[in-house]
Design goal:
By secondary structure, the protein is mostly helical. It has four helices and three strands. It has a domain of about 55 residues. It has a three-stranded antiparallel beta sheet with strand order 2-1-3, with no helix packed on it.
Length: about 130
């Protein structure tokens, strides 16, 4: 199973997973002796270059390190399962540049910061 060939929303989802789980990914790869794959992926995401090759390498490195799902473990979306359009809008923080699908419930006034740019995540309503 490889990551290669996924584009659009799946690519944004992968980037969001990497940004939201950087400490776990780094620790997993350090224990396997390959933290370089994460650094390469983060650099590719930050740059204007196509991040897919580096994300594919990161996905494969995580699999080799014993992570059973890599960077695309499940489909992630902003609308939780069972969400009802008739319920009040849910406030969430999202990626400030719209490059990934990372999100966090807006449970406090101090938004989390983007792992890549350091910018605060942007507040929106679902």
């Amino acid at each position: 199973m490889t990551y290669a060939g996924h584009t659009g929303q799946r690519l944004r989802t992968a980037i969001g997973y990497v940004c939201g789980n950087t400490p776990y990914i780094r620790q997993t790869l350090i224990e396997a002796g390959n933290a370089r794959a994460l650094d390469a992926a983060l650099e590719a995401i930050r740059s204007a270059a196509d991040p897919e090759p580096a994300l594919t390498a990161l996905h494969e490195a995580l699999l080799a390190a014993g992570d059973a799902r890599g960077i695309m473990p499940t489909v992630r979306g902003l609308r939780p399962a069972g969400a009802n359009a008739h319920l009040p809008a849910l406030a969430v923080y999202v990626c400030p540049t719209d490059r990934c699908s990372r999100h966090s419930r807006a449970e406090h006034d101090d938004p989390p910061r983007c792992t890549l740019s350091g910018e605060p995540l942007r507040l929106t309503r679902l």
